[in-house]
Amino acid sequence: MTEEDDFFGDGTSADEAPPNNRHGARQVALQALYSAQSAAIDIRIALEELCQRFALSDEVHAFATNLLLHATEHAEEIDTSAAAMANNWSWERIARIDRLILRLALAEMLYIEEIPVRVSINEAIELAKSYSTDKSYAFVNGVLDGVVRQKGLVV
Questions:
Q1: Which entry of 33, 49, 106, 149 is 20 to 30 Å from 77 by CA?
Q2: pLDDT in tens, 4-56
Q3: Is residue 25 within 8 Å of 32, Cβ to Cβ?
């Protein structure tokens, strides 16, 4: 695998198709966010290309689009909530991939009512385990739990 194929630097190929379900939609949304921030690519174009490349179903594409819409539309509010719970960490110093995982999870938790909060947290933990460092999943879990308590969300 070349460095260009290793999208997140974790040994996972960017060409490896995610599952054609909501978990896969979250993976594609994360890739689109990461691409948009890393290479100044329009997020909608990045998502469209990924969904076409992986031949994702319309339902999965729609979920990823909805998730990204909320994550970008409410990014400032979401980031402020997450940063407030990232005790002893400057938001800018948190790994980009962890910030994006938190942004997606909080967008889902706060703006997509049909998904139980616990599912959103578990999915974020799985993304962190797959795409970040060995300790990131615990950090992501802690920040999300803090936001749940702060906002009084039902788990």
A1: 49
A2: 444 444 444 556 889 999 999 999 999 999 999 888 889 999 999 999 999 99
A3: no
